[in-house]
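Issue: ligand-bound run for NAP - logging full I/O for the record.

Environment: standard queue, default settings, no custom constraints.

Inputs:
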Amino acid sequence: MVIDGKAVAAKVRAEVRDNVESFVAERGTSPGLATVLVGEDPASHVYVSNKIKACEEAGIRSIHHGLGEDVSQAELSGLVSELNSDDDVDGILVQMPLPDGLDQDAVIAEIDPAKDVDGLTATSAGLLAQGRPGMVPCTPLGVMRLLHEAGVEVSGADAVVVGRSILVGRPMASLLVNASATVTVCHSRTRDLAAICGAADILVAAVGSPRMIHGEWVKPGAAVIDVGINRTDEGLTGDVDFDAAAERAGAITPVPGGVGPMTIAMLLRNTLSAAQARRRSAAPAV
Ligand code: NAP
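Outputs:
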């Protein structure tokens, strides 16, 4: 079975749109997402404009700040601080990577965890690691929804995550542990990746290396989720050798059209959740 990420993403976006309508009816205002884009990187411009467009379609307000490449750390920091205290802003997204010379970690650390819709702050990561409610990075959250929609049983499954980044691999592993899978995390120093992958009921590849997961590494019947996005001469390809892996997998995501569309859908969901949580915590005690 090929998991149709576009269809699942459309379903999530429709759910968010309906919930935003109810939010507006109750609160008289829509959730707001602030996007911060520094510099002229063409890919980042495309990503941010896609996010703004998706917000519009879901009824979420976007507040965009485009800054020149020469912005100082202090100016950027000042903007994040303003957005933190702006009551009309429910979520803050600083598009990464930042141009050379700016300290990404310092900027992330300044985002109010209640508005951290990318789930990148240490507070969000800590809450997730402890299995407590908080903002979760959009891509791994999207993977969990794909597994759910494909009817994959996570509880008790042997799951392998290849990659340990803050953005994908680590939160992915935490989400799977929190859903009661038995999780192995692999990385560039892992010995015998083939054997470890071969034991996985759920295999998530988040490396950034075209087709590095061979078809014969896939356990027959396994769920294979390919997070990788690699631009090659033959076009966009994932980290998994799709054709060979699809012959063995019980369920598998394609690239493109798998995990990719879920990331923006989950950003919308996180923005709505942040708005709901902030309004709840601001509600007077009765
Ligand atoms: P990253 O920060 O570069 O991390 C890559 C991870 O892969 C690292 O942990 C690295 O190990 C590990 N790795 C590298 N070579 C390996 C090897 N030979 N064997 C096993 N592990 C290896 O990348 P990322 O941000 O997590 O992104 C991963 C991929 O997902 C990229 O292709 C990216 O474009 C894609 N992505 C897609 C979406 C989406 O919406 N679909 C969102 C985010 C990212 P070390 O830690 O040891 O270096």
